[in-house]
Amino acid sequence: QVQLVESGGGLVQAGGSLRLSCAASGLTFSNYAMGWFRQAPGKEREFVAAIATSSSITGYADSVKGRFTISRDNSKNAVYLQMNSLKPEDTAVYYCAARYARWPSVVLKRENEYSYWGQGTQVTVSS
Fold it and tell me: pLDDT for 58-68, tens place per residue?
């Protein structure tokens, strides 16, 4: 049974930083492409960042490029999202997602491409 558990959310002032973690179990983590999505109140869930099974290949939404960094540690079955220079508009529930990836260079940016989802962690940025 695949489980994804996010942690690290919280309340932070604008300009601050947070590091989200997603612990995966029940899968061969190194074979899975991973992604982060977020959903703000009253809005649809949107793509934030993704990483291929090859850690050197990543993708970002334009709104977070240069501020957020996605990384993974296959030895710990974990994916991370380092968020710097946070803005009030980054306030949302953040979800991690996983999808088996046949190719090491695959970066998945669409919600419907992912098979497994975590429960989410709340990030609130105050102005």
Answer: 999 999 999 99
